[in-house]
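User: Could you check the structure of this?
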Amino acid sequence: MHPKSGLALVVSSTYGTGDVPETAESALASLLDEKPDLSALRFGIISLGDSHYGDTFAKGGLHWDHALRQCGACRVGEILKIDCQSGEDPAVLAKPWLAGWLDLAAGPDAGMATGAVGSDRGR
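Assistant: Sure, the predicted structure tokens are below.
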């Protein structure tokens, strides 16, 4: 998180049946249990997954989106879902999305969750 702007970018992989990584489970659970006031936070999500898992593809990032919204945070733009089995470099796929997301975050409508830059990449 950028401390002065209240802006955060969450990058999460997906494990098992659509779960966040084991190392992130306690942080996610704490957000959902404690529900701190994050109303000053704007955030974006990059979610990594394997499209072979159909309904749970890139679901780890969706868990973060839900938890942060429950705490009052506002998502800027759409969630970027990256298929790590596509053979393409996730960093290369994320770069244009990130540029657009940063523009949205800096714009006059930055407090609105909009669909201007999201997509499924590498699928």
